[in-house]
Write a structure and sequence with these properties.
347 residues, alpha/beta, Multidrug-efflux Transporter Regulator, Chain: A, Domain 2, Rossmann fold, 3 domains, flat
Length: 347
C-alpha cells in the first residue's frame, strides 16, 4: 500500500492508489487511457503510471457520469471544468442532463448563470483517521464540483497552538473544522470553548465515539455540530456536503434526554435470528441478535431506572446514550451478516 501511494505528496499517484480512491478497476483505468484517452499519466523511471490530482478527479467524474447514463465516448474528451459543470447540473436537477454534443464555448458561456466554475473549499481535519476517510470521499461524484483542499492538525491542542501562533497572519480561513474525538472529556470541552473563542463564526463539527449527555449539550451550546462515529460513507458524504455549504454555526439546540438512534430490527426479527439452529449456517446471526436484544433491553431499562438526584439523571442519560450507540453498531454488524448469509427477516 505504501508503494501504491509513492509520490502522493507531489500529487502523483500510482495506478493502484487511483483504483482505491475512485473505485475504478485497474484494468478499466488502462482501457480508458489507451482507448478513450481520458487522461495522460506520466511514466516514472521505473515504468509506473503516475496520475495527478486533477486526473484522479477527472476519472472520478467520468465514472459518476458514466453511471448516470453518459457514454464514455461522448464525455472522455471533455475538460475537467466541463465535466464539473455537467456533474453540477446533474446534482442540482437530480436528473441526468442531456448531452448531445461536446459543449461549445458559447454554450458554456450561456450557462454561467448556473455555473461559476468549480468551488474552492477547505476543510481543516483535526485528529487521527480523518485524512484517510476524507481522501476516500474527496474524489466521489458527490463532491465532484468542488476543488477540495484538506488541511490537518494532529489534535485540538495543536490546532489552538497554530491559531495563536498565526493570529497576526492574514490567511484565508477554512470553510469548516472537522474534529475527531474518540471520547469527550472536560479537557476537550475546554479546548472547544477556546476554539470557539478564536473562531466565533466558523463551522465546527465533531465526530465522536462516546460522550456524556451533558458534554454533548455543552458542545451544542457552543454551536458545534455533532455526529456519532457510526456513519456510513453515504451519510458521511452528505454531512461533509452540508458543512461545506457554509453559513453561520448552528445554534445550540436542547438535547433530548433520551435521544436514540432508530432501531433496524424489531423484537420479532431479533427473536427469529436468535432461534436459528441450523448446523449448516453460520451462528453469527444468532449471537449478534442476542447481543442486540440485550443492549436494546438495557437501553429501555436505563430510561426508567430510579433517579435520586440530578447526578443520577445525568448518569442514566449517559448510560442510555452509550447503550443506544452500541446497539446501533451491533445492528449494523447483524445487518451485514444477514445480507451476506442471504437470510430472510420477518416483517
Amino acid at each position: 500500500m505504501v508503494q501504491d501511494f509513492m509520490n502522493a505528496s507531489q500529487g502523483q499517484y500510482r495506478i493502484g492508489a487511483v483504483a482505491k480512491m475512485t473505485g475504478i478497476a485497474v484494468a478499466t483505468l488502462r482501457v480508458w487511457q489507451i482507448r478513450h484517452h481520458v487522461v495522460k499519466p506520466v511514466m516514472s523511471q521505473g515504468g509506473q503510471r503516475l496520475y495527478s490530482d486533477q486526473e484522479v478527479k477527472k476519472l472520478a467524474l467520468i465514472k459518476g457520469l458514466n453511471q448516470a447514463g453518459h457514454s464514455i465516448g461522448l464525455i472522455s474528451g471533455l475538460s475537467l471544468e466541463q465535466l464539473q459543470e455537467l456533474a453540477f447540473k446533474h446534482q442540482q436537477l437530480g436528473t441526468t442532463p442531456t448531452l448531445s454534443a461536446t459543449p461549445t464555448p458559447e454554450s458554456m458561456h450561456a450557462s454561467q448563470d448556473a455555473w461559476s466554475g468549480a468551488q474552492a473549499k477547505t476543510i481543516c481535519l483535526v485528529g487521527g483517521g480523518l485524512m484517510a476517510r476524507m481522501n476516500a470521499l474527496r474524489y466521489s461524484f458527490g463532491l465532484a464540483h468542488i476543488n477540495l483542499e484538506l488541511q490537518q492538525e494532529s489534535s485540538l491542542s495543536q490546532l489552538l497552538q497554530t491559531l495563536e501562533r498565526d493570529a497576526h497572519l492574514a490567511r484565508s480561513e477554512p470553510d469548516c473544522y472537522l474534529i475527531k474525538l474518540n471520547s469527550t472529556s472536560s479537557d476537550s470541552l475546554r479546548e472547544l470553548q477556546a476554539l470557539r473563542a478564536h473562531l466565533p463564526s466558523s463551522r465546527i463539527a465533531v465526530l465522536y465515539h462516546y460522550a456524556l449527555a451533558q458534554e454533548l449539550q455543552s458542545m451544542r451550546d457552543l454551536g458545534v455540530e455533532l455526529k456519532r462515529e457510526i456513519l456510513s460513507s453515504e451519510e458521511m458524504l452528505a454531512w461533509v456536503k452540508d458543512l461545506l455549504r457554509g453559513g453561520p454555526p448552528s445554534k445550540g439546540q436542547p438535547l433530548h434526554p433520551y435521544s436514540a438512534t432508530k432501531r433496524l430490527f424489531s423484537n420479532e426479527a431479533l427473536a427469529h435470528f436468535a432461534q436459528l439452529d441450523n448446523p449448516l449456517l453460520c451462528e453469527c446471526p444468532k449471537h449478534l441478535a442476542q447481543i442486540v436484544e440485550q443492549l436494546a433491553s438495557f437501553e429501555q431499562y436505563s430510561l426508567h431506572c430510579l433517579n435520586k438526584s440530578p447526578q443520577d439523571e445525568a448518569l442514566h442519560r449517559s448510560l442510555h446514550q452509550v447503550s443506544s450507540t452500541c446497539r446501533a453498531m451491533f445492528e449494523q454488524s447483524l445487518l451485514q451478516v444477514v445480507k451476506h448469509e442471504g437470510l430472510d427477516s420477518p416483517v
